[in-house]
Amino acid sequence: MLKFPDDFAWGAACSGPQTEGRFNKRHRNVFDYWYDTDPQAFYNGVGPDTASNFYNDYQKDLPLMKEAGIKHLRTSIQWSRLIADFETGEVDPAGAKFYSDLIDCMLENGIEPYMNLCHFDMPYELQKKYGGWEDKHVGDLFAKFADKCFELYGDRVKHWFTFNEPKVIVDGAYLYKFHYPLKVDGPLAVQVTYNINLASAKAIQKFRARFKDDEHTVGIILNLTPAYPRSNEPADLEAAEFANLWCVDLWLEAAIKGTFPEKIIKILADDGVLWDATQEELDLIKESTIDLLGVNYYQPMRVQAPAISPKSLQDWMPDIHFDNYEMPGRVMNVDKGWEIYPKALYDISVNLRENYGNFPWFVSENGMGVSREERFLDDKGEVQDDYRINFIRDHLKWLHKGISEGANCKGYFLWTAIDNWSWMNAYRNRYGLIRDDIHTQKKTLKKSAYWYRKLSDTGELDA
Ligand code: BGP
Protein backbone atom coordinates (compact mmCIF):
# COMPACT_ATOMS: atom_id res chain seq x y z
CA MET A 1 0.00 0.00 0.00
CA LEU A 2 1.40 3.41 -0.96
CA LYS A 3 0.09 6.46 0.85
CA PHE A 4 -0.11 9.85 -0.89
CA PRO A 5 0.02 13.13 1.06
CA ASP A 6 -3.23 14.11 2.82
CA ASP A 7 -3.62 17.32 0.82
CA PHE A 8 -2.88 15.62 -2.52
CA ALA A 9 -5.53 16.71 -5.09
CA TRP A 10 -7.33 13.88 -6.88
CA GLY A 11 -9.18 14.92 -9.98
CA ALA A 12 -9.86 14.65 -13.67
CA ALA A 13 -9.40 16.86 -16.70
CA CYS A 14 -11.50 17.66 -19.73
CA SER A 15 -12.06 20.67 -21.96
CA GLY A 16 -14.95 22.83 -23.14
CA PRO A 17 -14.71 22.05 -26.86
CA GLN A 18 -14.48 18.30 -26.23
CA THR A 19 -17.44 18.01 -23.88
CA GLU A 20 -19.98 20.82 -24.21
CA GLY A 21 -21.23 20.45 -27.75
CA ARG A 22 -21.93 23.47 -29.93
CA PHE A 23 -25.32 24.29 -28.39
CA ASN A 24 -26.12 27.98 -28.20
CA LYS A 25 -22.62 29.07 -29.23
CA ARG A 26 -22.31 32.55 -30.67
CA HIS A 27 -19.09 31.89 -32.61
CA ARG A 28 -17.24 28.99 -34.17
CA ASN A 29 -13.74 27.95 -33.20
CA VAL A 30 -11.31 26.60 -35.78
CA PHE A 31 -12.47 23.01 -35.22
CA ASP A 32 -16.14 23.93 -35.64
CA TYR A 33 -15.26 25.69 -38.89
CA TRP A 34 -13.05 22.86 -40.13
CA TYR A 35 -15.77 20.32 -39.39
CA ASP A 36 -18.37 22.40 -41.22
CA THR A 37 -16.19 22.59 -44.30
CA ASP A 38 -14.63 19.10 -44.26
CA PRO A 39 -16.40 16.64 -41.94
CA GLN A 40 -14.54 13.67 -43.40
CA ALA A 41 -11.31 15.00 -41.93
CA PHE A 42 -12.70 13.79 -38.59
CA TYR A 43 -12.78 10.17 -37.48
CA ASN A 44 -15.97 8.55 -38.83
CA GLY A 45 -17.14 12.02 -39.79
CA VAL A 46 -18.08 12.75 -36.17
CA GLY A 47 -17.56 16.37 -35.17
CA PRO A 48 -17.92 18.52 -32.06
CA ASP A 49 -21.64 19.25 -32.46
CA THR A 50 -22.84 17.14 -29.55
CA ALA A 51 -19.61 15.98 -27.88
CA SER A 52 -20.65 14.60 -24.46
CA ASN A 53 -23.61 16.98 -24.34
CA PHE A 54 -22.11 18.55 -21.21
CA TYR A 55 -23.78 21.88 -22.03
CA ASN A 56 -27.18 20.30 -21.40
CA ASP A 57 -26.18 17.50 -19.04
CA TYR A 58 -23.72 18.99 -16.56
CA GLN A 59 -26.24 18.96 -13.70
CA LYS A 60 -26.48 15.18 -14.10
CA ASP A 61 -22.85 14.61 -15.05
CA LEU A 62 -21.22 16.35 -12.09
CA PRO A 63 -22.88 14.11 -9.45
CA LEU A 64 -21.64 11.11 -11.46
CA MET A 65 -18.14 12.52 -11.42
CA LYS A 66 -18.44 13.00 -7.68
CA GLU A 67 -19.40 9.34 -7.38
CA ALA A 68 -16.26 8.47 -9.33
CA GLY A 69 -14.16 10.22 -6.68
CA ILE A 70 -13.38 13.34 -8.68
CA LYS A 71 -12.81 16.13 -6.20
CA HIS A 72 -11.16 18.57 -8.61
CA LEU A 73 -12.09 19.10 -12.24
CA ARG A 74 -10.12 20.92 -14.87
CA THR A 75 -12.11 22.12 -17.83
CA SER A 76 -11.84 25.15 -20.10
CA ILE A 77 -13.82 28.25 -20.90
CA GLN A 78 -14.34 28.56 -24.64
CA TRP A 79 -13.34 31.97 -25.95
CA SER A 80 -15.81 31.45 -28.79
CA ARG A 81 -18.65 30.84 -26.32
CA LEU A 82 -18.00 33.50 -23.67
CA ILE A 83 -17.12 36.49 -25.82
CA ALA A 84 -19.52 38.29 -28.16
CA ASP A 85 -17.07 40.81 -29.56
CA PHE A 86 -13.42 39.73 -29.58
CA GLU A 87 -12.01 43.23 -30.03
CA THR A 88 -13.91 44.89 -27.17
CA GLY A 89 -14.17 41.81 -24.93
CA GLU A 90 -17.94 42.26 -24.57
CA VAL A 91 -19.47 39.04 -23.25
CA ASP A 92 -22.26 36.92 -24.64
CA PRO A 93 -24.86 36.78 -21.83
CA ALA A 94 -25.83 33.14 -22.46
CA GLY A 95 -22.17 32.06 -22.52
CA ALA A 96 -21.42 33.98 -19.33
CA LYS A 97 -24.41 32.46 -17.56
CA PHE A 98 -23.51 28.94 -18.67
CA TYR A 99 -20.01 29.08 -17.16
CA SER A 100 -21.28 30.77 -14.01
CA ASP A 101 -23.94 28.08 -13.48
CA LEU A 102 -21.44 25.35 -14.30
CA ILE A 103 -18.95 26.63 -11.70
CA ASP A 104 -21.73 26.89 -9.08
CA CYS A 105 -22.81 23.36 -9.84
CA MET A 106 -19.24 22.04 -9.49
CA LEU A 107 -18.94 23.70 -6.09
CA GLU A 108 -22.35 22.38 -4.99
CA ASN A 109 -21.04 18.89 -5.79
CA GLY A 110 -17.87 19.42 -3.81
CA ILE A 111 -15.76 19.58 -6.98
CA GLU A 112 -13.15 22.31 -7.11
CA PRO A 113 -12.92 24.00 -10.53
CA TYR A 114 -9.54 24.45 -12.23
CA MET A 115 -10.11 26.64 -15.27
CA ASN A 116 -8.09 26.70 -18.44
CA LEU A 117 -8.44 29.40 -21.09
CA CYS A 118 -7.19 27.82 -24.30
CA HIS A 119 -7.56 24.17 -25.20
CA PHE A 120 -6.50 24.57 -28.88
CA ASP A 121 -9.78 26.40 -29.64
CA MET A 122 -8.89 29.60 -31.48
CA PRO A 123 -12.03 31.49 -32.56
CA TYR A 124 -12.30 31.07 -36.32
CA GLU A 125 -12.96 34.77 -36.84
CA LEU A 126 -9.55 35.60 -35.33
CA GLN A 127 -7.86 32.88 -37.34
CA LYS A 128 -9.33 34.30 -40.52
CA LYS A 129 -8.71 37.95 -39.75
CA TYR A 130 -5.25 37.74 -38.15
CA GLY A 131 -3.96 34.21 -38.66
CA GLY A 132 -4.65 33.45 -34.99
CA TRP A 133 -1.42 33.16 -32.96
CA GLU A 134 0.57 34.25 -36.01
CA ASP A 135 -0.28 37.84 -35.05
CA LYS A 136 0.83 39.22 -31.69
CA HIS A 137 -2.30 41.37 -31.52
CA VAL A 138 -4.33 38.20 -30.93
CA GLY A 139 -2.34 37.81 -27.70
CA ASP A 140 -3.72 41.18 -26.58
CA LEU A 141 -7.25 40.03 -27.37
CA PHE A 142 -6.60 36.78 -25.51
CA ALA A 143 -5.46 38.74 -22.45
CA LYS A 144 -8.69 40.74 -22.65
CA PHE A 145 -10.71 37.51 -22.71
CA ALA A 146 -8.65 36.11 -19.82
CA ASP A 147 -9.27 39.23 -17.77
CA LYS A 148 -13.00 38.93 -18.39
CA CYS A 149 -12.89 35.36 -17.07
CA PHE A 150 -10.97 36.47 -13.96
CA GLU A 151 -13.49 39.27 -13.39
CA LEU A 152 -16.57 37.08 -13.84
CA TYR A 153 -15.47 33.90 -12.06
CA GLY A 154 -12.42 34.78 -9.94
CA ASP A 155 -14.62 34.90 -6.83
CA ARG A 156 -15.23 31.15 -7.16
CA VAL A 157 -12.32 29.82 -9.27
CA LYS A 158 -8.93 29.94 -7.58
CA HIS A 159 -6.75 28.00 -10.05
CA TRP A 160 -6.33 29.36 -13.56
CA PHE A 161 -4.33 28.19 -16.57
CA THR A 162 -3.57 30.15 -19.72
CA PHE A 163 -2.96 27.28 -22.18
CA ASN A 164 -3.25 23.53 -22.47
CA GLU A 165 -0.40 21.92 -24.41
CA PRO A 166 0.52 25.01 -26.48
CA LYS A 167 3.21 22.92 -28.20
CA VAL A 168 0.42 20.87 -29.80
CA ILE A 169 -0.93 24.03 -31.45
CA VAL A 170 2.50 24.56 -32.98
CA ASP A 171 2.84 20.92 -34.04
CA GLY A 172 -0.70 20.47 -35.29
CA ALA A 173 -1.36 23.77 -37.00
CA TYR A 174 2.12 24.75 -38.27
CA LEU A 175 4.26 21.62 -38.66
CA TYR A 176 2.46 18.31 -39.04
CA LYS A 177 -1.01 19.24 -40.32
CA PHE A 178 -3.35 17.76 -37.75
CA HIS A 179 -4.95 21.00 -36.54
CA TYR A 180 -6.45 23.84 -38.55
CA PRO A 181 -5.04 25.85 -40.44
CA LEU A 182 -2.98 22.79 -41.48
CA LYS A 183 0.14 24.71 -42.46
CA VAL A 184 3.65 23.32 -42.83
CA ASP A 185 5.92 26.24 -42.12
CA GLY A 186 8.86 25.75 -39.74
CA PRO A 187 9.90 29.43 -39.36
CA LEU A 188 6.26 30.40 -38.72
CA ALA A 189 6.02 27.59 -36.14
CA VAL A 190 8.99 29.17 -34.35
CA GLN A 191 7.31 32.58 -34.34
CA VAL A 192 4.00 31.11 -33.14
CA THR A 193 5.91 29.37 -30.33
CA TYR A 194 7.14 32.73 -29.17
CA ASN A 195 3.81 34.51 -29.72
CA ILE A 196 1.97 31.97 -27.57
CA ASN A 197 4.46 32.39 -24.74
CA LEU A 198 3.97 36.13 -25.07
CA ALA A 199 0.17 35.77 -25.06
CA SER A 200 0.39 33.65 -21.92
CA ALA A 201 2.53 36.34 -20.25
CA LYS A 202 0.00 39.03 -21.23
CA ALA A 203 -2.82 37.03 -19.63
CA ILE A 204 -0.70 36.47 -16.51
CA GLN A 205 -0.07 40.22 -16.33
CA LYS A 206 -3.86 40.75 -16.15
CA PHE A 207 -4.11 38.06 -13.49
CA ARG A 208 -1.43 39.73 -11.35
CA ALA A 209 -3.18 43.10 -11.64
CA ARG A 210 -6.42 41.59 -10.41
CA PHE A 211 -5.41 39.09 -7.71
CA LYS A 212 -2.97 40.05 -4.99
CA ASP A 213 -3.75 37.24 -2.54
CA ASP A 214 -2.02 33.86 -2.09
CA GLU A 215 -5.16 31.83 -2.72
CA HIS A 216 -5.35 32.45 -6.46
CA THR A 217 -2.79 30.78 -8.67
CA VAL A 218 -2.06 31.01 -12.36
CA GLY A 219 -0.28 28.42 -14.44
CA ILE A 220 0.14 26.74 -17.77
CA ILE A 221 -0.36 23.12 -18.77
CA LEU A 222 2.52 21.61 -20.73
CA ASN A 223 2.74 18.23 -22.38
CA LEU A 224 6.04 16.94 -21.11
CA THR A 225 7.14 14.10 -23.30
CA PRO A 226 10.75 13.48 -22.29
CA ALA A 227 13.02 12.50 -25.18
CA TYR A 228 15.19 9.42 -24.65
CA PRO A 229 18.11 8.81 -27.04
CA ARG A 230 18.38 5.59 -29.01
CA SER A 231 21.98 5.11 -27.86
CA ASN A 232 24.85 6.86 -26.15
CA GLU A 233 26.41 7.73 -29.49
CA PRO A 234 27.11 11.50 -29.58
CA ALA A 235 24.80 12.06 -32.56
CA ASP A 236 21.86 10.36 -30.80
CA LEU A 237 22.57 12.27 -27.59
CA GLU A 238 22.63 15.51 -29.53
CA ALA A 239 19.32 14.65 -31.16
CA ALA A 240 17.75 13.96 -27.76
CA GLU A 241 19.20 17.16 -26.37
CA PHE A 242 17.60 19.17 -29.18
CA ALA A 243 14.28 17.35 -28.81
CA ASN A 244 14.21 18.07 -25.08
CA LEU A 245 15.14 21.70 -25.62
CA TRP A 246 12.58 22.30 -28.35
CA CYS A 247 9.70 20.25 -26.96
CA VAL A 248 10.18 20.54 -23.22
CA ASP A 249 12.69 23.03 -21.79
CA LEU A 250 11.81 25.93 -24.08
CA TRP A 251 8.27 25.90 -22.69
CA LEU A 252 9.21 25.04 -19.12
CA GLU A 253 11.87 27.70 -18.79
CA ALA A 254 9.66 30.39 -20.32
CA ALA A 255 6.81 29.54 -17.95
CA ILE A 256 8.82 29.04 -14.76
CA LYS A 257 11.81 31.36 -15.16
CA GLY A 258 10.53 33.83 -17.78
CA THR A 259 13.48 33.21 -20.10
CA PHE A 260 14.26 30.91 -23.03
CA PRO A 261 17.12 28.39 -22.88
CA GLU A 262 20.26 29.96 -24.33
CA LYS A 263 21.09 26.77 -26.18
CA ILE A 264 17.83 26.72 -28.16
CA ILE A 265 18.13 30.44 -28.91
CA LYS A 266 21.58 29.80 -30.35
CA ILE A 267 20.45 26.85 -32.46
CA LEU A 268 17.46 28.75 -33.87
CA ALA A 269 19.63 31.80 -34.53
CA ASP A 270 22.29 29.66 -36.25
CA ASP A 271 19.55 28.08 -38.37
CA GLY A 272 18.33 31.58 -39.29
CA VAL A 273 14.84 31.09 -37.86
CA LEU A 274 14.91 32.84 -34.49
CA TRP A 275 11.67 34.61 -33.65
CA ASP A 276 11.07 38.30 -33.78
CA ALA A 277 10.99 39.69 -30.23
CA THR A 278 11.32 43.11 -28.64
CA GLN A 279 13.05 43.87 -25.34
CA GLU A 280 9.78 45.12 -23.92
CA GLU A 281 8.10 41.80 -24.69
CA LEU A 282 10.98 39.82 -23.23
CA ASP A 283 10.75 41.91 -20.06
CA LEU A 284 7.04 41.15 -19.84
CA ILE A 285 7.69 37.40 -20.22
CA LYS A 286 10.41 37.66 -17.57
CA GLU A 287 8.10 39.24 -15.01
CA SER A 288 5.00 37.15 -15.81
CA THR A 289 5.94 33.69 -14.61
CA ILE A 290 3.52 31.07 -13.33
CA ASP A 291 2.67 29.87 -9.81
CA LEU A 292 1.67 26.29 -10.60
CA LEU A 293 2.61 23.98 -13.45
CA GLY A 294 0.28 21.38 -14.98
CA VAL A 295 2.06 18.41 -16.53
CA ASN A 296 0.30 16.30 -19.16
CA TYR A 297 2.05 13.03 -19.74
CA TYR A 298 1.01 10.17 -22.02
CA GLN A 299 4.09 8.76 -23.70
CA PRO A 300 7.82 9.43 -24.11
CA MET A 301 9.71 10.41 -27.25
CA ARG A 302 12.32 7.98 -28.50
CA VAL A 303 14.75 9.82 -30.72
CA GLN A 304 17.80 9.24 -32.83
CA ALA A 305 20.15 11.31 -34.96
CA PRO A 306 18.39 12.56 -38.09
CA ALA A 307 19.02 10.46 -41.16
CA ILE A 308 21.00 12.20 -43.88
CA SER A 309 18.15 13.46 -45.97
CA PRO A 310 17.17 16.11 -48.47
CA LYS A 311 15.88 18.20 -45.57
CA SER A 312 17.59 21.53 -46.01
CA LEU A 313 17.83 24.66 -43.96
CA GLN A 314 15.77 26.43 -46.60
CA ASP A 315 12.79 24.38 -45.49
CA TRP A 316 13.51 24.60 -41.80
CA MET A 317 11.72 22.05 -39.69
CA PRO A 318 12.67 20.90 -36.17
CA ASP A 319 13.06 17.47 -37.74
CA ILE A 320 16.41 18.48 -39.19
CA HIS A 321 17.77 17.95 -35.68
CA PHE A 322 16.16 14.65 -34.71
CA ASP A 323 14.17 11.67 -35.92
CA ASN A 324 11.78 9.55 -33.96
CA TYR A 325 12.48 5.87 -33.80
CA GLU A 326 10.62 2.80 -32.65
CA MET A 327 12.46 1.23 -29.76
CA PRO A 328 12.31 -2.55 -29.97
CA GLY A 329 10.46 -4.11 -27.06
CA ARG A 330 8.68 -0.98 -25.91
CA VAL A 331 5.32 -1.61 -24.30
CA MET A 332 2.49 -0.40 -26.51
CA ASN A 333 -1.13 0.35 -25.97
CA VAL A 334 -2.26 -1.67 -28.98
CA ASP A 335 -5.44 0.29 -29.53
CA LYS A 336 -3.84 3.67 -29.46
CA GLY A 337 -0.45 3.08 -30.90
CA TRP A 338 1.01 4.99 -27.96
CA GLU A 339 3.85 3.66 -25.86
CA ILE A 340 3.25 2.99 -22.18
CA TYR A 341 6.22 4.07 -20.10
CA PRO A 342 5.23 5.01 -16.54
CA LYS A 343 8.77 5.71 -15.34
CA ALA A 344 8.80 8.95 -17.34
CA LEU A 345 6.59 10.50 -14.64
CA TYR A 346 9.40 9.88 -12.17
CA ASP A 347 11.98 11.29 -14.61
CA ILE A 348 9.83 14.42 -15.01
CA SER A 349 9.70 14.81 -11.24
CA VAL A 350 13.51 14.59 -11.06
CA ASN A 351 13.91 17.16 -13.86
CA LEU A 352 11.59 19.62 -12.10
CA ARG A 353 13.34 19.07 -8.79
CA GLU A 354 16.88 19.35 -10.05
CA ASN A 355 16.58 21.94 -12.82
CA TYR A 356 13.55 24.04 -11.92
CA GLY A 357 13.98 24.69 -8.19
CA ASN A 358 11.50 21.96 -7.25
CA PHE A 359 8.71 24.05 -8.73
CA PRO A 360 5.15 23.12 -7.63
CA TRP A 361 3.31 21.02 -10.19
CA PHE A 362 0.59 18.44 -10.60
CA VAL A 363 -0.23 15.81 -13.18
CA SER A 364 -2.88 17.64 -15.19
CA GLU A 365 -3.49 14.79 -17.69
CA ASN A 366 -2.55 11.14 -17.86
CA GLY A 367 -4.76 8.35 -19.09
CA MET A 368 -5.41 5.44 -21.37
CA GLY A 369 -7.50 5.62 -24.54
CA VAL A 370 -9.05 2.34 -25.64
CA SER A 371 -11.15 1.72 -28.71
CA ARG A 372 -14.31 -0.41 -28.91
CA GLU A 373 -14.66 -0.46 -25.14
CA GLU A 374 -18.04 -2.15 -25.50
CA ARG A 375 -15.92 -5.31 -25.81
CA PHE A 376 -15.41 -5.06 -22.07
CA LEU A 377 -19.02 -4.55 -20.99
CA ASP A 378 -20.18 -7.21 -18.54
CA ASP A 379 -23.74 -8.53 -18.37
CA LYS A 380 -24.70 -5.73 -15.96
CA GLY A 381 -23.57 -3.16 -18.50
CA GLU A 382 -20.42 -2.11 -16.62
CA VAL A 383 -17.14 -1.72 -18.50
CA GLN A 384 -14.54 -3.99 -16.87
CA ASP A 385 -11.57 -1.73 -17.57
CA ASP A 386 -8.87 -3.39 -15.50
CA TYR A 387 -6.34 -2.23 -18.12
CA ARG A 388 -7.14 1.37 -17.10
CA ILE A 389 -6.77 0.61 -13.40
CA ASN A 390 -3.39 -1.03 -14.09
CA PHE A 391 -2.30 1.92 -16.23
CA ILE A 392 -3.13 4.46 -13.52
CA ARG A 393 -1.60 2.30 -10.77
CA ASP A 394 1.67 1.86 -12.69
CA HIS A 395 2.00 5.59 -13.28
CA LEU A 396 1.11 6.45 -9.69
CA LYS A 397 3.74 4.05 -8.36
CA TRP A 398 6.47 6.00 -10.14
CA LEU A 399 4.91 9.30 -9.13
CA HIS A 400 4.87 8.16 -5.51
CA LYS A 401 8.55 7.30 -5.72
CA GLY A 402 9.22 10.82 -7.03
CA ILE A 403 7.22 12.36 -4.20
CA SER A 404 8.94 10.23 -1.58
CA GLU A 405 12.25 11.61 -2.88
CA GLY A 406 10.99 15.18 -2.51
CA ALA A 407 9.10 16.03 -5.72
CA ASN A 408 6.77 18.99 -5.22
CA CYS A 409 3.80 17.29 -6.87
CA LYS A 410 0.41 18.46 -5.65
CA GLY A 411 -2.04 16.18 -7.38
CA TYR A 412 -3.11 13.79 -10.11
CA PHE A 413 -5.84 14.57 -12.65
CA LEU A 414 -6.85 11.72 -14.90
CA TRP A 415 -7.81 12.25 -18.53
CA THR A 416 -10.76 11.96 -18.31
CA ALA A 417 -13.99 11.89 -16.30
CA ILE A 418 -16.55 11.04 -18.99
CA ASP A 419 -15.62 9.63 -22.42
CA ASN A 420 -15.35 12.64 -24.66
CA TRP A 421 -14.85 13.80 -28.21
CA SER A 422 -11.41 14.52 -29.51
CA TRP A 423 -9.99 16.42 -32.43
CA MET A 424 -8.96 13.65 -34.74
CA ASN A 425 -10.15 10.58 -32.90
CA ALA A 426 -13.71 11.69 -32.17
CA TYR A 427 -15.05 8.85 -29.97
CA ARG A 428 -12.59 6.13 -30.99
CA ASN A 429 -10.34 6.41 -27.95
CA ARG A 430 -12.31 6.10 -24.73
CA TYR A 431 -10.50 7.54 -21.73
CA GLY A 432 -13.28 8.07 -19.19
CA LEU A 433 -14.00 6.66 -15.75
CA ILE A 434 -17.58 7.06 -16.95
CA ARG A 435 -18.83 5.54 -20.18
CA ASP A 436 -20.82 7.71 -22.57
CA ASP A 437 -22.99 5.61 -24.84
CA ILE A 438 -23.17 8.09 -27.69
CA HIS A 439 -26.22 6.35 -29.19
CA THR A 440 -28.42 6.54 -26.10
CA GLN A 441 -26.44 9.29 -24.32
CA LYS A 442 -26.56 7.12 -21.21
CA LYS A 443 -23.61 7.65 -18.88
CA THR A 444 -22.51 4.87 -16.54
CA LEU A 445 -19.62 4.33 -14.16
CA LYS A 446 -16.94 1.89 -15.30
CA LYS A 447 -15.14 -0.46 -12.93
CA SER A 448 -12.24 2.03 -12.77
CA ALA A 449 -14.57 4.70 -11.36
CA TYR A 450 -15.16 2.71 -8.17
CA TRP A 451 -11.46 1.99 -7.87
CA TYR A 452 -10.59 5.68 -8.40
CA ARG A 453 -13.17 6.71 -5.80
CA LYS A 454 -11.52 4.51 -3.18
CA LEU A 455 -8.12 5.88 -4.08
CA SER A 456 -9.22 9.50 -3.85
CA ASP A 457 -11.14 8.93 -0.60
CA THR A 458 -8.22 7.25 1.16
CA GLY A 459 -5.12 8.49 -0.67
CA GLU A 460 -3.95 4.86 -0.55
CA LEU A 461 -2.79 3.05 -3.66
CA ASP A 462 -3.20 -0.72 -3.69
CA ALA A 463 0.27 -1.24 -5.10
C1 BGP B 1 -4.13 15.50 -25.03
C2 BGP B 1 -5.16 16.63 -25.09
C3 BGP B 1 -6.55 16.20 -24.78
C4 BGP B 1 -6.94 14.80 -25.20
C5 BGP B 1 -5.80 13.79 -25.05
C6 BGP B 1 -6.07 12.45 -25.69
O1 BGP B 1 -3.03 15.83 -25.79
O2 BGP B 1 -4.83 17.68 -24.19
O3 BGP B 1 -7.40 17.21 -25.29
O4 BGP B 1 -7.57 14.77 -26.42
O5 BGP B 1 -4.59 14.29 -25.55
O6 BGP B 1 -5.91 12.49 -27.07
P1 BGP B 1 -6.85 11.67 -28.05
O7 BGP B 1 -8.23 11.90 -27.54
O8 BGP B 1 -6.65 12.26 -29.39
O9 BGP B 1 -6.44 10.24 -27.96
UniProtKB/TrEMBL annotation:
Domain of life, per lineage: Bacteria
SUPFAM superfamilies: (Trans)glycosidases
Record-linked InterPro entries: GH, Glyco_hydro_1
Gene3D superfamilies attached to this UniProt entry: Glycosidases (3.20.20.80)
Database matches in PANTHER family: 6-PHOSPHO-BETA-GLUCOSIDASE GMUD (PTHR10353:SF139), GLYCOSYL HYDROLASE (PTHR10353)
Family: Belongs to the glycosyl hydrolase 1 family.
Protein name: Beta-galactosidase
Organism field: Lactobacillus nasalidis
Underlying gene: bgl
